[in-house]
Amino acid sequence: MAVLSDPVSAPAVTGSAPRGGTGSDTRVETAARSPHDRAAMLGHDMRAAIADVLGGLALADLSRLDPESRLQLQRVQSAAEQLARLTDETLALVTGDDLPRANTPVQTSLGPFLDRIAARWRAHAEERGLGFALDCDEDLPGEIGTDPAALERILSNMIGNAVKYSPAGTVRLRVHRGAQEALCLRVRDTGPGFSDAAMARLFDYAGRPEDSSQPGTGLGLHIVRDLAQRIRGQLQVANARGGGAEVSLILPRAAWAPGVEAPAALSALPDLSGCTVLVAEDNPTNQLLVRQMLETLGARVALVEDGEAAADALAAQRFDLVLVDIEMPRLSGIDVVRRLRAAEGDGPATPVLAVTAFVLSANRDQIYAAGADGILAKPIMSLDAFGEAIARVLSKRPAPCDPTTDSAAPFDPVHLDRLLALAGPEDGRELLTRMREDFGAVRDGLAEGRARGDSALLRARTHVLIPLAGAVGNTALQAEAEALNAAARSGDRAVIGRLLPCVLERVDVLGAALGREFRARYCEEPAR
Hints:
Layout: H1 23-31, H2 35-59, H3 67-95, E1 108-109, H4 110-127, E2 131-136, E3 143-144, H5 148-165, E4 170-177, E5 183-188, H6 196-200, H7 219-230, E6 234-239, E7 245-251, H8 253-256, E8 276-280, H9 284-296, E9 300-304, H10 307-316, E10 321-325, H11 333-344, E11 352-356, H12 361-370, E12 374-377, H13 383-395, H14 413-423, H15 425-452, H16 455-471, H17 475-490, H18 493-522
Parallel strand pairs: 2-4, 8-9, 8-10, 10-11, 11-12
Antiparallel strand pairs: 1-3, 4-5, 5-7, 6-7
């Protein structure tokens, strides 16, 4: 499968070819005929356009608007965020590539999430002369570990169908706790309900009965069922007493509880007070948005508008952090990072966060190979996502550590308690035993990779270590494992040599701590 040799060299799909093209122009045009490459370029331009929409909305002062106008713009913002996620999934489907993975664990504030859903669909309902009500019980969890993109798509299809088939009245979304702490999201409409024929083909692809007078193909519930299975949820569909249909998404505790699917997100935004950050970005909207976010975090910002200016600034002074757009005039962001790393040699390395609308794995691999420490995909969804990306980049350039005297605990007792409580007494014993065995196997693999100089083995073992460390709440080890994984992927032996001893020491300390925990909980020696 053809891939872009350099994402910044790809011409914009909407642009016209220059007159009197050179041989290299012809080569680029030929490569652009590949469906994979065309999809990559279209995906880039789509994400860039969505980034402009979201960036403009983020910079706008909605408080000055009347309530109706503010509601409409909030609805547009919510739809644009969902469009960005759907763009990623569509691009991955067309190219056969992996979806870009988040750098941080999934952690969603349930209340604000539901408020955004309600704001969006209240406006839809009002356009059709309907009401929309959100009913939330008081004992709902504050945070959930469910993928918010999948959950929003599920609710959008459920509520969209309810609005479509309700001739009058109010569509209701009720969210409450069910049996065994299941999280229940129920959408009820005032329509005619499901016929027997519709029930028989409910989740089929385009399953609307052929003799149905209702509009549409029945694709919505097929999508909902597929997404519900992805997040380990269950669907219940019924005709409600008194008329109308009721569609419910049931999420067992193991599917929604934070810390079960993934560890908790970073607890606080990074403090960049006293830090000088270079931002290399040519888009005016993104310039304003990134500057505002950095200044909110306390940073001093130096702004340049093209790659050559960025390279000159980096040659003239040292920055605490660099944010570089990958596609810029005069010199690409990849070339900026390459020049920086070449100039630094074996000396201290500047943390670099690449900001890009290119999301295919080949593009990401090339960006990391150039020397970037992290990638933040456009559009930037929130200050939290922005801050967490920066925090992880900064953690990948750590000072030499001594894990035996580190002030942080080897594991987070809350994370471990939650995991073992959900597993139950006997399964908890086995879970802790397997966890110790897994850390031991990772430790042996890292030591072997170190002895053999085997980057592939280091990459494989750190790939296992990252979620293991996160599962017990050791964010320091998790961040160092991610940095070591990136160094192994790019073949950066200097970074590997600096990080690997520290990671091995942390794994040893954590393994010993888990052994003590096993003895304390079960009053016996753990299996060797």
